[in-house]
Amino acid sequence: MICMDVVIREIESKDYISVAAIWHDVLGFSSVTDETVAKTCEKMKGDSRYCTFVADVNDNVVGLVTTVETLAIDPPNGYIKVNGLAVLPEFQHCGIGKMLMERVEKLAGERNISLIGLASGFQRTGAHAFYEHLGYQKLSFWFRKRI
Length: 147
What we know:
By secondary structure, the chain is α+β, with helices and mostly antiparallel strands. Helices cover 31% and strands 24% of the residues. It starts with 6 loop residues before the first strand and ends in a 14-residue tail after the last helix.
């Protein structure tokens, strides 16, 4: 794979179908559809706590990162939680994931936030190595319950 010029930009409505495909195919969430992505992204557009950035190569979305700014007692300025990061397999190992995470770090700086957190599935060992390479520490398990 020859890495090309990559533009990291905010998501636009024209990106929703590509984002749905990445979320479904790369992250493995089979319940994600074009409609659910469009509906969720439109809700997020109206709330400044949410940011989604895409990696664009020649007008094609090849990766994404989506975040939410969350308040917490500690740290007092809250933190940014990465809700999802994915890059199409044929564009991995080109620095795109790093570029997307650097954009999240820039967002944190713009908002005077000093902590970024994320969860990553047990099976995603390659992602774990990637995050550790970027300086993220593995500190806990994340639990959830569907209701």
